[in-house]
Amino acid sequence: MKTIPIFFSFNNDYVEPAAVAFFSLLNKAKKDIYYDMYVLHPDITEPRQNLLKEIINKCENGRLTFINVGNFGEKFWKNDNFSKGSSGSKFTSDTIVRCFATKFFPQFDKIIYSDVDIVVVDDISPLFDMDIGEHYILGVRSPFMKYLPEELSHLPSNVYDICKDSYIGGGIWVMNLKKIRQDNIEQKMFEIIKDDNIVKKWPDQDIMNIACNGNVGFIPLNYIAYPYMLDMIRKPDFVSHYSKAELFDSIINPKIIHYAANKPWNGNPSYSEVWWTIFDFLNLEKTHIFKKNKNIVSKDKKKIRKYKILFILFLVISLVLLLSLIKFMWM
């Protein structure tokens, strides 16, 4: 049995999305893979922790440990230093915490980080065996930076020149903790956070990319399949660092679906049904982060709507047949 360490960072509000992510990760793991799972958090209550632990225990191929980080991220979180990436993005101080894995995991030389706005649809254990070499981190190179260069326009020109062709997004990282410790990259991250002249539009991504200074490695794009990728590649002027074959492969052979902007619980992105199927299977409850949106329909509600349509269709056909019969009898 091979044990792989992996950690997540979120607060009490995102336990339900985490439950979906955790179950999908363990459900798709190979039989000889065991996940040593950690959650860095500031406020997850004991009942909510137990909810997640029960799911992990039933899967029997992982264990879950919670690490309360207190106000570690909050003390750096300033409105004039960090800004929202887009109207669909909601960042919290927990976003910063994930950058400092060396502080919280001194026992590991390498570890995987994952967001919780995901569904794992194939075994991802090969990530841990990728050759990380002298790179500080492995991540998925953003497929949109050539098409949307303004996404990095907030960076100083000297930083932009280094990052424009190597900028890695969030979602999934393999972190070389040994190398990060050796080169004291953590101190660089603190300096970047405190520097008000550097706007961190994408908090964790900007911090890691700037601190690593281009010394990053790349994970295949299908480890972060974006639900809106098909819409992007259909645009006639779309360009990317990836080939069309790589872009298309991320759509038809995804390993992880990353709901990076539009979330299943408050929107209706592609691949939403697989997320809601797991949500319903786990018998989870909607919380305040679930927006009341008529486009958000769970699997059970879709079935009810389907049966209503069939019932109405049956009534219409029956009425037509009855009228035909009456007409025939009067002839």
Shape: globular
Q: CATH topology of the largest domain, anyone?
A: Spore Coat Polysaccharide Biosynthesis Protein SpsA, Chain A
Structural class: alpha/beta
SSE series: EHEHEHHEEHEHEHHHEHHEHH
Rg for CA atoms: 23 Å
Regions with little confidence, pLDDT below 50 for 5+ residues: 84-88, 293-300
CATH top level of the largest domain is Alpha Beta
Write up what this structure looks like.
With 331 residues, the chain is α/β, with parallel strands linked by helices. It has 2 domains: 2-281, Spore Coat Polysaccharide Biosynthesis Protein SpsA, Chain A, CATH 3.90.550.10; 297-331. It has 13 helices and 9 strands. The strands form 2 sheets. Strands 3-2-1-4-7-6-8 form a 7-stranded mixed beta sheet, sandwiched between helices. Strand 2 (33-41), helix 2 and strand 3 (62-68) form a beta-alpha-beta unit. The termini are far apart. Residues 84-88 and 293-300 have low confidence and may be disordered.
